[in-house]
Structure formats: structure tokens, C-alpha cells
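B., you asked whether I could sanity-check this one before it goes into the benchmark set. Here's the sequence:
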Amino acid sequence: MTEDVQKHSVHTLVFRSLKRTHDIFLANQAFLPFLKDDIAEELRKSVKSRDSYGLVFDRVQAAKVQKASQGHNNSHVQHPEEPMAVVPANPTPNSQSSSSALMTIPQSTPFGQSTGGQVQLIPKKAPTIPKPKWHPPWKLYRVISGHLGWVRCAAVEPGNEWFATGSADRVIKIWDLASGKLKLSLTGHVSTVRGLAVSGRHPYLFSCGEDRQVKCWDLEYNKVIRHYHGHLSAVYSMALHPSIDVLATAGRDSTARIWDMRTKANIHTLTGHTNTVASVVAQTANPQIITGSHDSTIRLWDLAAGKSVCTLTNHKKSVRSVVIHPSLYMFASASSDNIKQWRCPEGNFVQNLSGHSSIINCMAVNPDGVLVSGGDNGTLHFWDWRTGYNFQRAQAPVQPGSMDSEAGIFAMTFDQSGSRLITAEADKTIKVYREDEDASEESHPINWRPDIIKRRKF
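And here's what the prediction gave me:
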């Protein structure tokens, strides 16, 4: 005898399944027993304290013993003027100072040196703050107009004869570096040009933009000879590897892509960032590729394996710019919270450079150790790389007729000699800065106050 099976709609069956799952699992979530083992908790705390403070743990315990013994024995008083604590190296039960001894320290201990049967605890040396190197102030000496939109990127030719700029007017313009006159205009992008790179071994200019295109221009014919297809959204930054024919690009699709310059092959797709990759740089030594993203992280990449070897999460805001020092094995990253310096290859943190009150869009560094950062409000900050001393602050003048909001600095680069600074700005101009030749250390002294710096840092 067969029973008729009642037919239900799919919606009813799914609802019953969800309700059954809900009844099985949800009821237990809020009523899990809370287990607390006092012995295990004490053991966990002791292991953690020993791991974190193991180097000074014994000394703290011995100091407590000494303090307690001093309360019972008022005859022995330690003068606060004594610079060191003197402890017997081999205390004996008949010794008068056995009750107030800190601890027995062997002669091989790193904290003391044995002198005449006693051990001296060497006080920690106060940190020294190096005096910054004097740099002459920088001044504006040329303003170049010609673009019809925001100037978003700039790149200098390796021969130091000309430089190129890309703009929101979709045109790439090539300017004479000495005179500032326009030499050539290249059209081909259909949206804002966001990145430029000039090859040092080939007569090639590379460009990328918000139209998702990456182009290779042959400067002998002033024509596009290669396209690199693969990005799914706007391409914001690009970099050429110094020693091999490899091009790195990064953009809004949260990836950085490595291209073979000649075959146009996408060698690697560097995935891992969770937001727009705003900056990518390349160097010969490891890590060969460094990226900064709007997800507030910096990633160091192994170019051979195509994998991330380290992720730096110190920044709290979007990282919009990364720059590599031309001679030191270091790099810097910029965010709206501050500028951070790192040491390669592991990405060890060095120091913070604080002082900007706006979003930092770009940075540049020259061989003399001058680091320049440009903000969204048109401010320029000049830093001494080694000490992080901010020796000059400047406000870029806005082109007459522009709005106050068009004061942002989008890109900057030094020429090959490091003596001229080129900035690309929101008032549709390119500004060129150079060092003040009339300045001296007497006319522009270093306002170095180590006592104030020490109170801030320590």
C-alpha cells in the first residue's frame, strides 16, 4: 500500500530546511559553558611575562627583594647620587652585605663587568639624536602651462634633456628640461593619463591611464607600437625594472601586473591587496617590486616567484605613494597619517616623519638625501632623509584664475642630477623648483632643538 506524498512548493521546503538548521545550531551558541581554569590562567600569564620581559625579569625580582630587605635593615642606605649599583660577585653567608645583595651575577653576564670581586651594573646609555645635514632651501623658478586638465604624472628622460607629463586632457606632452618649451604632444589615450615611465635602454616611453590601457611609444617614430591588455579597471601607476625588460603596472582592480616588455606577455599577476593599488616601484635588489595600496598596506614582492613575501600594516590610512632611495637600501611610504621609512629587504621600520596636515599624494628623493612630499592642499615639505628633520615647508602658488581647491600636487620627480624638482599640479601647470644658490648655513640655519625632539620621542 502506497501513501500519497504531499507536495510542497520549493519555497516551503527551503524554509523548512532553514528552520530545521536554525533550531539545531542556533540554540547552543549563546549557552556554551564558560570554562575558567585558574591554574592554566596563571601559567599563561607567567609564560607570557617570561617571554616578553625575560631579559629583565630576574633583575626586577631582585630589586623587589632588595627593597624589602632595606625596609628591615635601615642601617644600609643607598644614596641616590650613586650612578651604579655594586653587587658582590660571590656573596657568603658571613658577609655583611648578604642581606642586601641583589643577585649573583657570573662574570660572563652581559649586564656587568667584574672588577675586584664585585660586579657593576652598567646604566643604559641615553639615546643620541644625530644633527641633521644642512640643505639649502628650494625655490620656485619656472611655471609651465600648456595642459588643459589636471596634470597627473611626470617622468624625466635618462639623458636629462627632456621630461614628459600626462594630464586629464588625455595628452602626453614632452618638454625641454632646460628651457621649459614644448617639444611634442602625443595623443592616443581616451581618458586621463595617470602614469609615465621612460626606458633607459630603449627609445621607449610607457604610459597608462584610466582607460585601462598600457601603451608603449616608440620615440623614434612617435607612435604606439605595443599595447598591454589585462587590467580590468583604471591603471594608476607603473614602473620599469632597472636591469631587465620588465614593466610593472598597478591600478584600481587591486592587482599589480608584471609584463614582458617585448612579447607583451603578462608574466605575473600580483594579487593580495584588497583595494586600489596606488603606487608601484621597482629596484634591482630584493624586494624587486614594492606596492602601496588604499587598503593601508604595503607589500614586498618576490619577482621570480610572483608572490608576496611581506606585508607591512603600520599605516592606518591609504598608502598613495612609495619611493625608493637612489643610493641607500631603504624606501619610504606616504599616507595621510604620516610618512614612514623602511629598511630593505625585510621591510624593517626605521622612523616616522610627521607634519603634513593633508593627504600626501606623492614623494620624491634625490641622491643628496632630500625627501620631498606633496599634499592635496598644495603644500610641499622638504625632509632630511637620515634624521627625518623637516627643514622647509612651502605652499605652491596657484595659477591666476584657478579655484582654491585646485592647489593639489599629484606627482613629482627629480631630474637625473637631483638639482631640479618637477611637480605636476591640479591648476593645470607644471612647476619647477631648484635650490637657492644665495642661501648659506648662516642665512638659513638649522632650527635643531634636540631637547624638544627628545621629549616628543621618548
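One thing to flag: The radius of gyration is 31 Å. Otherwise nothing jumped out at me.
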